[in-house]
From TrEMBL:
Disordered: annotated segments: 51-73, 231-341
Organism: Slackia heliotrinireducens (strain ATCC 29202 / DSM 20476 / NCTC 11029 / RHS 1) (Peptococcus heliotrinreducens)
Top-level taxonomy: Bacteria, Bacillati, Actinomycetota, Coriobacteriia, Eggerthellales
Record carries keyword Metal-binding: no
Name used for this protein in its record: Beta-glucosidase-like glycosyl hydrolase
InterPro entries hit by this protein: GH, Glyco_hydro_3_N, Glyco_hydro_3_N_sf, NagZ_Beta-hexosaminidase
GO terms of molecular function: hydrolase activity, hydrolyzing O-glycosyl compounds
Start and end residues of each Glycoside hydrolase family 3 N-terminal domain: 85-223, 352-528
PANTHER family the UniProt entry points to: BETA-HEXOSAMINIDASE-RELATED, GLYCOSIDE HYDROLASE FAMILY 3 DOMAIN PROTEIN
Length: 540
């Protein structure tokens, strides 16, 4: 059986690694992966039972049939036995493909991707608009990536985008892919029809799976009423006051200039106006900060730059990408002089409101439940966000929720409870601060939020992942990956420096404060959810 499985993959990998990278016929891929799925269900890929000498398991074990839950437990144990601690730690990371391939922009999954996954068998890839140049190219790349990941460890690889509908889409706003954009969550919520919510999710799932994507990090459970208006932020109030003072000073100067000597008047006025210009520049710099949805990484040096800036697989100095211009996806980078709000011609409050179904927890809960059901039927894994609710930034670096403890439980957490009841496989925890629960600590780094609230109080048994760790909010948290795991998170999402974070986790396992059982706990959960939620073939 193991020979047959290897034969299937050898044929497919040979087909997919032709120099021209032609698109794999859907029927060919589906048949091949169907064989693989059948073999997997029979436990064929794990028939050696972890023995290095290849000795088959006993016939009694191979032929035994238990409940679906028992069979799943067996498959999880078999997978765990095959993995080294390095492989287990890699499985905890959900990253852009560039983070492990060390190239500027990945547009194919060739031998380099296979080698990267052999070294770093991460749990998932997050793609951006820059990774997709056409539907055929996208389908071939994701198919190859999936096969490479499966060939490395026998596990499905999460292949994801942020596709929310409305303003924030990686796929639908890429003209090269031909997908039809779906309405925003707010439009659907205002209509109040759960059928339309389910239809929206079904449409998104269809066009994602058509190009080989099996995961969407696009279902928002937040409510807009918890987003504090940016206009009232302390930083902006101070800035406005300073601007008014400058304006008054300029006005006073203009009055003085009427009686002052002509030669000095202009010079004095210019000197007074200059601070106002400086204030404007400060405001523009303030606006450069995002709502926690955009990437804020520095641009990547070119591969042929000075030696110290070349990609280095040992140090990971060049594991960030540049040139990503998809301003309507969560992984988009800002241009030097424009924010996402400038490009969309929308205020931060309006953007956040469009991403939320409603300010009524009952409406949000109903819509979220309908969409989860639709994604599940469409065989696309969905990850809901941002537990337990986020707020608009009050200035360029701080993000927090104004919810009281009572509001948190009576309102904010209700849609997440509904998502759990609907069977959501994974939940993203916000990097916002929740003062009523965890003080100034980002939620995804707080055991009070991750373990006490989400895992214990709500009883969530699926994958808990962090929000992005590569933005300004998390810049001061150098050991965020380790802290997130200590808090109870299972997956680390988009660390600013993958290799550094990966090594930090390994070091924490070897020397504390983490231990092997803590890693095993999360890896078991990840494997179980993958086998339950991710299809082993591309949807036709």
């Amino acid at each position: 059986m193991a020979f047959l499985l290897q034969l299937v993959f050898n044929v497919l990998v040979m087909e997919t690694n032709k120099p021209s990278y032609p698109a794999i016929p859907r029927r060919t891929f589906a048949i091949g992966m169907g064989w693989a799925a059948s073999l997997f269900a029979l436990g064929a890929w794990g028939c050696t039972d972890g023995k290095s000498d290849g000795t088959p398991s006993s016939n009694a074990e191979a032929d035994s049939e238990g409940s679906p839950e028992e069979e799943l437990d067996k498959q999880v144990k078999q997978a765990m036995r095959r993995m080294s601690m390095e492989q287990k730690v890699a499985q905890l990371f959900f990253v852009p493909p560039e983070s492990i391939t060390f190239v500027k922009t990945v547009v194919a999954a060739s031998e380099a991707t296979l080698e990267a996954l052999q070294h770093y068998p991460v749990g998932g890839f997050l793609y951006s608009a820059a990774n997709f140049t056409s539907s055929d190219q996208a389908a071939t790349m994701t198919t190859n990536a999936f096969l490479h990941g499966y060939n490395v460890n026998g596990l499905p690889l999460m292949l994801a985008v942020n596709e929310e509908g409305g303003y924030l889409n990686t796929v639908a706003d890429n003209d090269a892919l031909g997908a039809i954009a779906q309405p925003s969550a707010r439009e659907v919520g205002n209509d109040g029809d759960t059928q339309k919510a389910g239809d929206r999710a079904h449409s998104i799932a269809n066009y994602l799976s058509a190009i080989g994507l099996n995961t969407n990090i696009g279902l928002v459970c937040d409510m807009c009423s918890e987003y504090a208006p940016v206009e009232s932020s302390p930083a902006e109030d101070a800035e406005e006051a300073a601007s008014e003072e400058n304006a008054e000073a300029v006005e006073a100067t203009e009055v003085e200039s009427e009686t002052a000597p002509e030669t000095g008047a202009g010079t004095e006025a210019e000197a007074e106006v200059e601070p106002e210009a400086g204030t404007e520049t400060s405001a523009e710099a303030e606006a450069e900060s995002d709502v926690g949805a955009e990437r804020t990484d520095a641009s990547e040096p070119e591969a042929d730059s000075s030696p110290e800036k070349k990609p280095d697989a040992e140090t990971g100095q060049d594991n960030k990408t540049s040139g990503r211009k998809n301003v309507t996806s969560e992984e988009a980078e800002s241009d030097e002089d424009q924010t996402i709000y400038d490009k969309l011609d929308i205020s931060p409050g309006e953007l956040m409101s469009s991403r939320s179904f409603s300010n009524d927890p009952a409406v949000v809960s109903a819509m979220v439940s309908a969409e989860i059901e639709s994604y599940t039927k469409s065989s696309v894994m969905t990850i809901v966000k941002h537990f337990p609710g986020i707020a608009c930034p009050q200035d360029g670096s701080v993000m927090y929720s104004l919810a009281t403890d009572a509001a948190l439980r009576d309102k904010n957490m209700l849609p997440f409870t509904a998502a759990i009841d609907a069977g959501v496989p994974a939940i993203m925890v916000s990097n916002a601060s929740i003062p009523c629960v965890a003080g100034e600590t980002p939620a995804c780094l707080s055991a009070s939020v991750v373990t006490d609230l989400l895992r214990d109080e709500l009883g969530f048994e699926g994958i808990i992942m962090t929000d992005r760790l590569d933005n300004d909010i998390m810049a001061t948290h150098k050991g965020a990956a380790v802290d997130a795991l200590r808090a109870g998170c299972d997956m680390i999402f988009c660390p600013a420096d993958f290799e550094s974070s990966y090594n930090q986790v390994l070091d924490a396992v070897a020397h504390g404060p983490l231990d092997e059982e803590r890693i095993n706990e999360s890896v078991r959960r990840i494997i179980r959810i993958k086998l339950q939620s991710l299809p082993l073939s591309i949807k036709q």
